[in-house]
């Protein structure tokens, strides 16, 4: 099968935290890139040269790519040499992977797919999803041949290359991180590695699609288990009246120990979700991964209990609780699966709450209708509150003068630990 000599056009489906930076980086390398999103506002914002998410330096890159006409956004997929799918893969209420966005993206590109094209799934996926998408596409396009059933003869290449970028460092990690590139066939992996070689300085490690799927899930489950260990230790230390931060800092002096930071729980669309994809594949074989999820999901209630105890100790009938931060981690605007929101929801059942969140202009939907919850600025939140709960360690909070908390009870869920080595 003759493939295009080189990749000149790219269609990136899903313009979120991964898809948009990916589209912009490839555009900056000279490819003609169209980014696709079902949200009309997102399409309009990007076509105006602006961005709809907070990520360092992304605005400059997108603005330049749009100005030079290398990048534009559209509502539907368009013909291209290669397609990258970067749409969400959430879970359903009973923790099963929801592949509906992935299938919708495949349906969209199926109409414009042509012989010689490469399709890469970057969305985190349960093992077997890439082959399922190949089967799905084959059913829609019987005129083309696909790698799951025609091996080297296929005229479409399909691969899974999971994104591994850390929000807040996306542009750096997109270029510098090694990539795992898993093809349905070795030829698919080779083609996908050729595409990434245009933009990625890290190594492109070729493997099968199924292995690449598990690798990504394993990375995030590993992180979840590691944070769960820190959180479990914090639960124990709390009960024994020991400062968990001091205990962990001292333990980390051991040359082979590197305990992560406890916190209010694990949020984000990745680490709080992906371990369930492994559990779903092998429920009986994953007691550790399931336990980690339970430990991390139990943290918001523990924090809320600590606040309730502190509130009782004030002797006030209606103490005001000030919450600093709502996003799932520092210095970004992402609130998906945020444990800070879980804490606020519990506290809102009993207290009046003020929230300071420098990365949001309005309260998230799940808090917006609560009459006793109000979004405010940092200073007014602290001044008006009897108890201040630091939930997200944004830089705006870290630089606050400690005297701001005089006469307040401060509950700092992010502690004062030095950063672990791999954070
Ligand atoms: N957290 C702690 N204590 C820690 C570290 C993290 O409580 O010591 C919490 C954070 O506050 C946050 C959650 O864990 O709520 C997740 O944050 P994170 O910084 O660990 O990770 P994410 O979700 O922002 O990004 C992860 C990364 N995966 C790994 O580090 C293995 C990133 O490389 C992936 O690309 C990303 O998931 C993804 O998209 O899958």
The ligands bound in this entry are: ligand SAJ
Number of strands: 13
CATH superfamily of the largest domain: NAD(P)-binding Rossmann-like Domain
The CATH architecture of the largest domain is 3-Layer(aba) Sandwich
Low-confidence stretches: none
Termini gap: 45 Å
Secondary-structure-derived class:
alpha/beta
With strands numbered from the N-terminus, the spatial order across the biggest sheet is: 3-2-1-4-5-6-7-8
Features:
16 helices; alpha/beta; single chain; eight-stranded mixed sheet; binds ligand SAJ; 2 domains; Rossmann fold; 41% helix; 423 residues; five-stranded parallel sheet; 13 strands
Question: What does this 3D model show about the protein?
Answer:
The longest helix has 31 residues, at 209-239. By secondary structure, the chain is of the alpha/beta class. It starts with 8 loop residues before the first strand and ends in an 11-residue tail after the last strand. The protein has two domains: 9-202, NAD(P)-binding Rossmann-like Domain (Rossmann fold), CATH 3.40.50.720; 220-412, NAD(P)-binding Rossmann-like Domain (Rossmann fold). Helix 9 (209-239) packs across helix 10, helix 9 (209-239) crosses helix 11 (274-281) and helix 12 (287-314) crosses helix 13 (339-347). The model has no long low-confidence stretch (mean pLDDT 95). It has an eight-stranded mixed beta sheet with strand order 3-2-1-4-5-6-7-8, sandwiched between helices. It is globular, with a radius of gyration of 23 Å. It has 16 helices and 13 strands. It binds ligand SAJ. Ligand SAJ is lined by residues 124, 163-167, 219-220, 223, 227, 260-261, 263, 266-268, 270-271, 328-329, 423.
């Amino acid at each position: 099968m003759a493939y295009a000599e080189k990749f000149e056009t790219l269609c990136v489906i899903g313009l979120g935290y991964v898809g948009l930076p990916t589209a912009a980086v490839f555009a900056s390398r000279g490819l003609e890139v169209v980014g696709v999103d079902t949200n009309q506002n997102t399409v309009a914002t990007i076509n105006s040269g602006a961005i709809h998410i907070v990520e360092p330096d992304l605005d400059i890159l997108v603005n330049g790519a749009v100005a030079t006409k290398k990048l534009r956004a559209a509502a539907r997929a368009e013909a291209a040499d290669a397609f990258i799918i970067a749409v969400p893969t959430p879970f359903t209420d009973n923790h099963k992977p929801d592949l509906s966005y992935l299938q919708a993206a495949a349906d969209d590109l199926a109409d414009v797919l042509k012989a010689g094209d490469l399709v890469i799934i970057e969305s985190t996926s349960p093992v077997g999803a890439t082959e399922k998408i190949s089967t799905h596409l084959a059913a829609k396009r019987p005129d083309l041949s696909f790698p799951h059933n025609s091996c080297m003869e296929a005229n479409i290449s399909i691969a899974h290359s999971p994104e591994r970028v850390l929000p807040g460092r996306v542009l750096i990690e997109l270029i510098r991180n090694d990539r795992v590139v898993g093809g349905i066939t070795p030829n698919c992996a080779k083609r996908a590695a050729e595409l990434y070689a245009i933009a990625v300085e890290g190594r492109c490690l070729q493997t099968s699609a199924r292995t690449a799927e598990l690798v990504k899930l394993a990375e995030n489950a590993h992180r979840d288990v590691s944070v769960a260990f820190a959180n479990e230790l914090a639960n124990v230390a709390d009960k024994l009246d020991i400062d968990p931060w001091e205990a962990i800092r001292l333990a980390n002096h051991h040359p082979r120990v590197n305990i992560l930071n406890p916190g209010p729980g694990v949020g984000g669309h990745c680490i709080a979700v992906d371990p369930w994809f492994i559990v779903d594949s092998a429920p009986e074989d994953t007691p550790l991964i399931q336990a980690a999820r339970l430990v991390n999901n139990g943290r918001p209630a523990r924090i809320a209990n600590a606040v309730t105890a502190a509130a009782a100790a004030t002797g006030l009938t209606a103490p005001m609780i000030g919450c600093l931060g709502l996003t799932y981690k520092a210095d970004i605007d992402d609130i998906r699966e945020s444990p800070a929101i879980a804490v606020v929801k519990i506290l809102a059942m009993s207290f009046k709450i003020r929230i300071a969140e420098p990365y949001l202009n309005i309260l998230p939907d799940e808090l917006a209708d609560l009459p006793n919850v109000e979004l405010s600025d940092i200073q007014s939140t602290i001044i008006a509150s009897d108890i201040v709960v630091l939930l997200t360690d944004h830089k705006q909070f870290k630089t606050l003068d400690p005297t701001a908390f005089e006469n307040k009870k401060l509950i700092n869920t992010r502690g004062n630990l030095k950063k672990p080595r791999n954070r």
